[in-house]
Amino acid sequence: MGETKTLTPERLRAFAPLGALSDERLRELAALCRVETVPRGGDPFRLHGLGGQVVYLVAGELKVSHAGGLVEVLVGGCDAALRPLPNELAQAVAVRAITAVELIRIDEHLLDIMLTWDQLSAQASDAAEATDWRTLTGAFRAEILTSGAFAQLPPSNIDALLRRFERISVKAGEVVLREGDEGDYYYLIESGRCEVTRRVGGAALPLAELKAGDAFGEEALVADGQRNATVTMRTKGVLLRLGKQDFIELLREPLLKRVSRAEAERRVAAGAVWLDVRFPAEFQHDRLPGAINIPLNEIRNAIGPLAADTEYIVYCQSGRRSSAAAFILSQHGYHAYWLEGGLRPPGNS
Protein backbone atom coordinates (compact mmCIF):
# COMPACT_ATOMS: atom_id res chain seq x y z
CA MET A 1 0.00 0.00 0.00
CA GLY A 2 1.16 3.56 -0.58
CA GLU A 3 0.12 7.16 -0.98
CA THR A 4 -0.71 8.57 -4.40
CA LYS A 5 -1.27 11.93 -5.99
CA THR A 6 -2.57 14.94 -4.09
CA LEU A 7 -6.32 15.37 -3.98
CA THR A 8 -8.12 18.39 -5.37
CA PRO A 9 -11.27 20.02 -3.95
CA GLU A 10 -13.05 19.29 -7.23
CA ARG A 11 -12.39 15.59 -6.84
CA LEU A 12 -13.65 15.53 -3.26
CA ARG A 13 -16.83 17.40 -4.15
CA ALA A 14 -18.24 14.32 -5.91
CA PHE A 15 -18.43 12.35 -2.65
CA ALA A 16 -21.29 12.54 -0.15
CA PRO A 17 -21.54 14.41 2.16
CA LEU A 18 -18.32 16.27 1.20
CA GLY A 19 -20.10 18.20 -1.53
CA ALA A 20 -21.93 20.15 1.19
CA LEU A 21 -18.68 21.77 2.36
CA SER A 22 -17.65 25.25 1.25
CA ASP A 23 -14.88 25.71 -1.33
CA GLU A 24 -12.50 26.97 1.35
CA ARG A 25 -13.15 24.00 3.63
CA LEU A 26 -12.76 21.53 0.76
CA ARG A 27 -9.35 23.00 -0.08
CA GLU A 28 -8.30 22.55 3.53
CA LEU A 29 -9.69 19.02 3.70
CA ALA A 30 -7.91 18.02 0.48
CA ALA A 31 -4.57 18.61 2.18
CA LEU A 32 -5.58 16.51 5.20
CA CYS A 33 -6.91 13.41 3.45
CA ARG A 34 -4.91 10.22 3.07
CA VAL A 35 -4.92 8.60 -0.34
CA GLU A 36 -3.96 4.92 -0.48
CA THR A 37 -3.42 2.41 -3.25
CA VAL A 38 -3.89 -1.31 -2.64
CA PRO A 39 -2.43 -3.82 -5.12
CA ARG A 40 -4.46 -6.59 -6.68
CA GLY A 41 -5.10 -9.36 -4.14
CA GLY A 42 -4.47 -7.07 -1.15
CA ASP A 43 -6.71 -6.52 1.87
CA PRO A 44 -7.28 -2.74 2.26
CA PHE A 45 -8.39 -3.06 5.88
CA ARG A 46 -5.73 -5.40 7.25
CA LEU A 47 -3.46 -2.59 8.47
CA HIS A 48 -5.72 0.41 9.03
CA GLY A 49 -9.27 -0.92 9.40
CA LEU A 50 -12.26 1.41 9.26
CA GLY A 51 -12.54 2.55 12.87
CA GLY A 52 -12.63 6.33 13.25
CA GLN A 53 -12.27 6.77 9.49
CA VAL A 54 -14.53 7.81 6.63
CA VAL A 55 -13.31 5.78 3.64
CA TYR A 56 -14.25 6.10 -0.04
CA LEU A 57 -13.49 3.64 -2.84
CA VAL A 58 -12.26 5.92 -5.62
CA ALA A 59 -11.16 3.39 -8.24
CA GLY A 60 -10.87 -0.37 -8.72
CA GLU A 61 -12.96 -3.32 -7.52
CA LEU A 62 -13.25 -5.00 -4.12
CA LYS A 63 -14.59 -8.51 -3.46
CA VAL A 64 -16.30 -8.77 -0.08
CA SER A 65 -17.10 -12.22 1.37
CA HIS A 66 -19.64 -12.12 4.21
CA ALA A 67 -20.57 -14.76 6.76
CA GLY A 68 -23.14 -17.19 5.34
CA GLY A 69 -21.51 -17.26 1.93
CA LEU A 70 -22.81 -13.95 0.59
CA VAL A 71 -20.34 -12.30 -1.81
CA GLU A 72 -20.56 -8.77 -3.22
CA VAL A 73 -18.35 -6.69 -5.49
CA LEU A 74 -17.83 -2.98 -4.85
CA VAL A 75 -16.83 -0.89 -7.86
CA GLY A 76 -15.07 2.46 -7.49
CA GLY A 77 -16.61 5.34 -9.39
CA CYS A 78 -20.17 4.02 -9.40
CA ASP A 79 -22.98 5.83 -7.61
CA ALA A 80 -22.83 3.56 -4.55
CA ALA A 81 -19.10 4.26 -4.16
CA LEU A 82 -19.75 7.99 -3.83
CA ARG A 83 -20.89 7.27 -0.27
CA PRO A 84 -18.51 6.15 2.51
CA LEU A 85 -17.78 2.45 2.76
CA PRO A 86 -19.90 0.93 5.57
CA ASN A 87 -18.08 0.10 8.80
CA GLU A 88 -19.49 -3.44 8.65
CA LEU A 89 -16.96 -4.24 5.92
CA ALA A 90 -14.30 -4.52 8.60
CA GLN A 91 -16.27 -7.48 10.03
CA ALA A 92 -16.49 -9.34 6.71
CA VAL A 93 -14.94 -12.80 6.42
CA ALA A 94 -12.59 -11.55 3.70
CA VAL A 95 -12.02 -8.43 1.61
CA ARG A 96 -9.74 -8.64 -1.42
CA ALA A 97 -8.84 -6.26 -4.22
CA ILE A 98 -9.89 -7.80 -7.55
CA THR A 99 -7.89 -5.06 -9.27
CA ALA A 100 -5.57 -2.39 -7.90
CA VAL A 101 -7.78 -0.03 -5.91
CA GLU A 102 -7.52 3.53 -4.68
CA LEU A 103 -9.02 4.70 -1.37
CA ILE A 104 -9.51 8.07 0.30
CA ARG A 105 -9.35 8.10 4.10
CA ILE A 106 -10.61 11.01 6.22
CA ASP A 107 -10.55 11.26 10.02
CA GLU A 108 -14.19 10.87 11.11
CA HIS A 109 -13.91 13.36 14.00
CA LEU A 110 -12.31 15.99 11.77
CA LEU A 111 -14.96 15.64 9.08
CA ASP A 112 -17.81 15.82 11.61
CA ILE A 113 -16.42 19.06 13.05
CA MET A 114 -15.98 20.57 9.58
CA LEU A 115 -19.53 19.67 8.58
CA THR A 116 -20.94 21.03 11.85
CA TRP A 117 -19.09 24.34 11.52
CA ASP A 118 -20.00 24.78 7.87
CA GLN A 119 -23.68 24.11 8.51
CA LEU A 120 -23.82 26.49 11.47
CA SER A 121 -21.78 29.05 9.52
CA ALA A 122 -24.20 28.90 6.61
CA GLN A 123 -27.12 29.59 8.95
CA ALA A 124 -25.33 32.48 10.64
CA SER A 125 -24.42 33.92 7.23
CA ASP A 126 -28.03 34.02 6.05
CA ALA A 127 -28.74 37.21 7.98
CA ALA A 128 -28.67 40.44 5.97
CA GLU A 129 -25.15 41.86 5.56
CA ALA A 130 -23.74 39.02 7.70
CA THR A 131 -20.19 37.76 7.32
CA ASP A 132 -19.81 34.53 5.34
CA TRP A 133 -18.04 32.60 8.10
CA ARG A 134 -17.39 29.65 5.79
CA THR A 135 -14.64 31.67 4.12
CA LEU A 136 -12.74 32.43 7.34
CA THR A 137 -10.46 29.40 7.50
CA GLY A 138 -7.67 31.55 8.91
CA ALA A 139 -9.44 31.95 12.23
CA PHE A 140 -11.36 28.67 12.06
CA ARG A 141 -8.93 26.29 10.37
CA ALA A 142 -9.16 22.58 11.12
CA GLU A 143 -6.26 22.57 13.57
CA ILE A 144 -8.05 25.10 15.77
CA LEU A 145 -11.47 23.48 15.48
CA THR A 146 -10.18 20.04 16.48
CA SER A 147 -7.78 20.86 19.31
CA GLY A 148 -8.38 24.45 20.46
CA ALA A 149 -11.06 26.28 22.37
CA PHE A 150 -13.81 25.74 19.79
CA ALA A 151 -13.42 21.95 19.90
CA GLN A 152 -14.75 22.02 23.47
CA LEU A 153 -17.85 24.13 22.84
CA PRO A 154 -21.40 22.83 22.42
CA PRO A 155 -22.95 23.54 18.99
CA SER A 156 -25.37 26.06 20.51
CA ASN A 157 -22.42 28.19 21.65
CA ILE A 158 -20.79 27.95 18.22
CA ASP A 159 -23.94 29.21 16.54
CA ALA A 160 -24.21 32.12 18.99
CA LEU A 161 -20.53 33.01 18.59
CA LEU A 162 -20.80 33.26 14.83
CA ARG A 163 -23.78 35.58 15.22
CA ARG A 164 -22.10 37.83 17.79
CA PHE A 165 -18.54 38.14 16.47
CA GLU A 166 -17.83 41.52 14.87
CA ARG A 167 -15.36 41.58 11.97
CA ILE A 168 -13.06 44.63 11.86
CA SER A 169 -10.22 45.68 9.57
CA VAL A 170 -7.02 47.01 11.17
CA LYS A 171 -3.98 48.82 9.79
CA ALA A 172 -0.29 48.12 10.33
CA GLY A 173 0.87 50.01 13.42
CA GLU A 174 -2.64 50.30 14.87
CA VAL A 175 -2.89 49.76 18.65
CA VAL A 176 -5.74 47.31 19.24
CA LEU A 177 -5.60 47.36 23.04
CA ARG A 178 -3.44 49.30 25.46
CA GLU A 179 -1.85 48.31 28.77
CA GLY A 180 -3.80 49.74 31.71
CA ASP A 181 -7.14 50.03 29.89
CA GLU A 182 -10.23 48.20 31.12
CA GLY A 183 -10.99 44.90 29.41
CA ASP A 184 -13.86 45.22 26.94
CA TYR A 185 -13.33 42.83 24.01
CA TYR A 186 -11.90 39.41 23.17
CA TYR A 187 -10.09 39.20 19.81
CA LEU A 188 -9.43 36.39 17.35
CA ILE A 189 -7.04 37.01 14.45
CA GLU A 190 -8.45 36.13 11.03
CA SER A 191 -5.48 37.51 9.10
CA GLY A 192 -2.34 39.51 9.80
CA ARG A 193 0.21 39.54 12.63
CA CYS A 194 0.45 41.58 15.81
CA GLU A 195 2.96 42.11 18.63
CA VAL A 196 2.32 41.92 22.37
CA THR A 197 4.43 44.27 24.54
CA ARG A 198 4.58 45.37 28.19
CA ARG A 199 6.13 48.49 29.72
CA VAL A 200 9.15 47.60 31.85
CA GLY A 201 11.37 50.38 33.18
CA GLY A 202 9.88 52.86 30.73
CA ALA A 203 10.58 50.68 27.67
CA ALA A 204 8.25 48.42 25.66
CA LEU A 205 9.35 44.81 26.22
CA PRO A 206 8.22 42.40 23.43
CA LEU A 207 6.39 39.39 24.85
CA ALA A 208 4.97 37.53 21.86
CA GLU A 209 4.01 37.73 18.20
CA LEU A 210 0.55 36.49 17.26
CA LYS A 211 -0.72 35.22 13.90
CA ALA A 212 -3.94 34.08 12.23
CA GLY A 213 -5.90 31.76 14.51
CA ASP A 214 -4.40 33.19 17.71
CA ALA A 215 -6.56 34.99 20.28
CA PHE A 216 -5.82 37.80 22.70
CA GLY A 217 -7.55 40.05 25.21
CA GLU A 218 -8.91 37.21 27.33
CA GLU A 219 -6.78 37.80 30.44
CA ALA A 220 -8.48 41.03 31.53
CA LEU A 221 -11.92 39.57 30.77
CA VAL A 222 -11.35 36.37 32.74
CA ALA A 223 -9.77 38.14 35.72
CA ASP A 224 -12.12 41.18 35.41
CA GLY A 225 -9.16 43.55 35.53
CA GLN A 226 -7.12 45.96 33.44
CA ARG A 227 -5.14 45.12 30.33
CA ASN A 228 -1.67 43.95 31.35
CA ALA A 229 -0.10 44.40 27.90
CA THR A 230 -0.37 46.37 24.68
CA VAL A 231 -1.20 44.70 21.35
CA THR A 232 -0.13 46.45 18.16
CA MET A 233 -0.65 45.29 14.58
CA ARG A 234 2.62 44.55 12.80
CA THR A 235 0.78 44.16 9.50
CA LYS A 236 -2.65 45.07 8.27
CA GLY A 237 -5.23 42.42 9.00
CA VAL A 238 -8.73 41.43 10.00
CA LEU A 239 -9.83 40.73 13.57
CA LEU A 240 -12.95 39.10 14.99
CA ARG A 241 -14.13 40.92 18.10
CA LEU A 242 -16.44 39.65 20.85
CA GLY A 243 -17.90 41.82 23.61
CA LYS A 244 -17.18 41.10 27.27
CA GLN A 245 -20.58 39.71 28.23
CA ASP A 246 -20.74 37.48 25.16
CA PHE A 247 -17.22 36.26 25.93
CA ILE A 248 -18.17 35.38 29.51
CA GLU A 249 -21.34 33.57 28.47
CA LEU A 250 -20.11 31.71 25.38
CA LEU A 251 -16.41 31.08 26.03
CA ARG A 252 -15.33 31.67 29.61
CA GLU A 253 -18.01 29.62 31.32
CA PRO A 254 -17.70 26.49 29.12
CA LEU A 255 -13.86 26.52 29.09
CA LEU A 256 -12.91 27.69 32.57
CA LYS A 257 -12.92 24.67 34.87
CA ARG A 258 -12.54 25.36 38.59
CA VAL A 259 -11.69 22.92 41.38
CA SER A 260 -11.70 23.10 45.17
CA ARG A 261 -8.52 22.53 47.15
CA ALA A 262 -9.66 19.03 48.12
CA GLU A 263 -10.51 18.08 44.53
CA ALA A 264 -7.23 19.60 43.30
CA GLU A 265 -5.20 17.56 45.76
CA ARG A 266 -7.07 14.42 44.72
CA ARG A 267 -6.23 15.09 41.07
CA VAL A 268 -2.57 15.79 41.86
CA ALA A 269 -2.37 12.52 43.78
CA ALA A 270 -3.72 10.84 40.61
CA GLY A 271 -1.03 12.40 38.40
CA ALA A 272 -1.99 16.03 37.76
CA VAL A 273 0.71 18.71 38.11
CA TRP A 274 0.55 21.92 40.14
CA LEU A 275 1.26 24.94 37.90
CA ASP A 276 2.13 28.15 39.78
CA VAL A 277 1.64 31.28 37.64
CA ARG A 278 2.98 33.82 40.16
CA PHE A 279 6.31 35.62 39.83
CA PRO A 280 9.41 33.56 40.77
CA ALA A 281 9.88 35.56 43.99
CA GLU A 282 6.39 34.54 45.13
CA PHE A 283 6.90 30.96 43.99
CA GLN A 284 10.09 30.57 46.04
CA HIS A 285 8.31 31.79 49.15
CA ASP A 286 5.44 29.29 49.45
CA ARG A 287 5.22 26.91 46.51
CA LEU A 288 3.10 23.77 46.62
CA PRO A 289 4.94 20.41 46.63
CA GLY A 290 6.03 19.37 43.13
CA ALA A 291 4.77 22.58 41.50
CA ILE A 292 6.32 24.06 38.37
CA ASN A 293 6.49 27.82 37.89
CA ILE A 294 5.44 29.64 34.72
CA PRO A 295 4.42 33.27 35.41
CA LEU A 296 1.19 34.41 33.75
CA ASN A 297 3.07 36.80 31.46
CA GLU A 298 5.05 33.84 30.07
CA ILE A 299 2.22 31.34 29.74
CA ARG A 300 1.77 31.84 25.98
CA ASN A 301 5.41 30.91 25.42
CA ALA A 302 4.76 27.62 27.21
CA ILE A 303 2.13 26.55 24.66
CA GLY A 304 3.84 23.66 22.91
CA PRO A 305 6.66 22.94 25.39
CA LEU A 306 4.12 21.98 28.07
CA ALA A 307 3.13 18.31 27.80
CA ALA A 308 -0.27 18.07 26.12
CA ASP A 309 -1.17 14.78 27.81
CA THR A 310 -0.74 16.12 31.35
CA GLU A 311 -3.46 17.58 33.55
CA TYR A 312 -2.56 20.90 35.20
CA ILE A 313 -3.96 22.48 38.37
CA VAL A 314 -3.17 26.18 37.97
CA TYR A 315 -2.90 28.38 41.05
CA CYS A 316 -1.78 31.80 42.25
CA GLN A 317 -2.34 33.83 45.41
CA SER A 318 -5.98 34.79 44.90
CA GLY A 319 -7.19 32.88 41.82
CA ARG A 320 -7.19 35.95 39.58
CA ARG A 321 -4.02 35.20 37.63
CA SER A 322 -4.53 31.44 37.67
CA SER A 323 -8.02 31.67 36.15
CA ALA A 324 -6.62 33.71 33.26
CA ALA A 325 -3.74 31.26 32.73
CA ALA A 326 -6.03 28.23 32.91
CA PHE A 327 -8.32 29.76 30.29
CA ILE A 328 -5.41 30.44 27.93
CA LEU A 329 -4.21 26.86 28.29
CA SER A 330 -7.72 25.49 27.76
CA GLN A 331 -8.02 27.58 24.60
CA HIS A 332 -5.08 25.63 23.20
CA GLY A 333 -6.46 22.21 24.08
CA TYR A 334 -4.71 21.64 27.41
CA HIS A 335 -6.42 19.95 30.35
CA ALA A 336 -6.18 22.85 32.80
CA TYR A 337 -8.11 23.59 35.99
CA TRP A 338 -7.77 26.60 38.23
CA LEU A 339 -7.65 26.42 42.01
CA GLU A 340 -10.71 28.34 43.12
CA GLY A 341 -9.78 31.11 45.55
CA GLY A 342 -6.05 30.48 45.11
CA LEU A 343 -3.69 29.88 48.01
CA ARG A 344 -5.45 32.46 50.18
CA PRO A 345 -9.23 32.03 49.82
CA PRO A 346 -11.36 34.85 51.28
CA GLY A 347 -11.72 34.51 55.05
CA ASN A 348 -8.53 32.44 55.42
CA SER A 349 -5.39 33.82 56.96
Question: Mind explaining what this structure looks like?
Answer:
The model has no long low-confidence stretch (mean pLDDT 87). A hairpin with a 5-residue loop joins strand 4 and strand 5. The protein folds into three domains: 2-109, Sandwich (Jelly Rolls); 136-251, Sandwich (Jelly Rolls); 256-339, Oxidized Rhodanese, domain 1, CATH 3.40.250. The protein is built from ten helices and 20 strands. The protein has helices at residues 9-12, 23-32, 108-124, 142-147, 155-164, 218-223, 244-255, 261-269, 280-286, 320-331, and strands spanning 2-3, 34-38, 53-59, 61-65, 71-75, 94-97, 101-107, 166-170, 175-177, 185-191, 194-200, 203-210, 215-216, 230-233, 237-243, 257-259, 273-276, 292-293, 311-315, 335-339. Strands 16-20-19-17-18 form a five-stranded parallel beta sheet. A four-stranded antiparallel beta sheet has the order 1-2-7-3. Strands 8-15-10-13 form a four-stranded antiparallel beta sheet.
Layout of secondary structure:
Layout: E1 2-3, H1 9-12, H2 23-32, E2 34-38, E3 53-59, E4 61-65, E5 71-75, E6 94-97, E7 101-107, H3 108-124, H4 142-147, H5 155-164, E8 166-170, E9 175-177, E10 185-191, E11 194-200, E12 203-210, E13 215-216, H6 218-223, E14 230-233, E15 237-243, H7 244-255, E16 257-259, H8 261-269, E17 273-276, H9 280-286, E18 292-293, E19 311-315, H10 320-331, E20 335-339
Parallel strand pairs: 16-20, 17-18, 17-19, 19-20
Antiparallel strand pairs: 1-2, 2-7, 3-7, 4-5, 4-6, 8-15, 9-14, 10-13, 10-15, 11-12, 11-14
